[in-house]
Amino acid sequence: MEVTQTSAEGLRREFRVVLNSGDIGARVETRLKQLSGAMRMPGFRPGKVPVALIRKTHGKAVLGEVLEQAVNESSRSAIEDNKLRPALQPRIEVTKFGEDEGLEYTMAVEVLPDVEPGEFSGVSLERLTVPVEEAEVEQSLERLASSQKRFEAAPEGTEAAEGNAVVIDFLGKKDGVPFDGGEAKDFQLELGSKRFIPGFEDQLIGAKVGDERVIALNFPDDYPVKELAGQPVTFDVTVKEVQSAAAVSIDDEFAKSFGVESLADLRATLRKQLESRYGDLSRMRLKRALLDALAEQHSFEVPQGLVDLELEQIVAQAEPELRQVPDQELDEEKKARRAEKDGEWRPIAERRVRLGLLLAEVGRRNNIQVKPEEVNRAVMEEARRYPGQEKEVFEFFQKNAQAQAQLRAPILEEKVVDFILELVKITDRQVSLEELRRAAEESDDTDAPASEA
Question: Is the pTM of this model over 0.90?
Answer without folding.
Answer: no
